[in-house]
Amino acid sequence: MSEQRELATLGGGCFWCLEAVFEQLAGVHKVESGYSGGKLPDPSYRAVCSGDTGHAEVVQVTFDPAVISFREILDVFFATHDPTTLNRQGPDAGTQYRSAIFYLTDQQREIARQRIAELNAANIWNRPIVTEVVALQKFYPAEDYHQGYFRGNPTQPYCQAVVSPKVAKFRKQFTSKLKA
Fold first, then answer.
1. Which of 10, 18, 100, 102 could form a disulfide with 132 if both were Cys (CB 3.0 to 4.6 A apart)?
2. Cα–Cα distance between 148 and 15 in angstroms, integer?
3. What is the rounded CA–CA span in Å between residue 107 and residue 111?
4. How does DSSP classify residue 98?
5. Cβ 11 vs Cβ 56: under 8 Å
6. CB neighbours of 174 closer than 8 A, spacing ≥ 6?
7. Which three-class secondary structure state does DSSP give residue 72?
C-alpha cells in the first residue's frame, strides 16, 4: 500500500512555533516554514516583517491522511495558538502573525469552516475565532536559516521563552499523536 500525501498550509503567529509542534506529529512527513497570502512574489523575511507585503508567516505541513486527518491537523493548530487575536500571537504583532488556514481543496475549506463553527459554539475562548480561511494562492519557502529553527536553536532566548512552552503544552495534550 502506497502512502498518500496531502498539504496543509497554516498561519498561527511565528512559524518557528508551528514548525516545532507539527514536525513531532505522527503521520507528518515534512514541515516547511514560509510565507503565504500576500502580494509580493518571493518575499524575504525582512520584507514580510515590514508588514507591507500582506504575507503571513506560515508552515506547510506534508502529511499522510491515513495516519492523521486534516481535521486532526486543525485540532493541533487551534490548540497551539490563540485563534481569537487579530494580527497577534503573544509578543508578535502585525498582519504577518495572523491566524490563517490556506486551503487547497473545497473539502479542506469546508472542514476548516466546520471546525471553526464547532469551536466557537463550544465557547472554548472568551472571544470568537478570527482565523482567516482563504484559498492558497502561492507558498514561498522561508530562508534556509528558518527551517528547523527551534530544533537547531533550543537555547535561543525567544525559543526558550515562547517556543519551548508551546511545544511542552502540545506534547502533554497530544501525547498519543506524537511520533514514536
1. 100
2. 10
3. 6
4. -
5. yes
6. 25, 76, 79
7. helix
Instruction: Encode pLDDT of 43-52 as tens digits.
Output: 999 999 999 9
17 is an active site residue? no
pLDDT at 3: 74
Query: What are the residues facing 117 on neighbouring strands?
Result: none
Name beta bridge partners: 9. 60, 102
Contact 6, 61 (CB under 8 A): no
Q: What are phi and psi of 69, to 5 degrees?
A: -85, 165
pTM score > 0.90 for this model? yes
What is the Rg, in whole angstroms, of the alpha carbon atoms belonging to the chain? Answer: 15
Nearest to 60 by CA among 136, 9, 133, 104: 9
Give the residue among 38, 30, 41, 37 at the shortest CA–CA distance from 7. Answer: 30
Burial of 83 (0-12, 13-18, 19+ CB in 10 A): buried
Query: What are the residues whose beta carbons fall under 8 Å from the beta carbon of 40, sequence distance 6 or more?
Result: 47, 52, 53, 54, 55
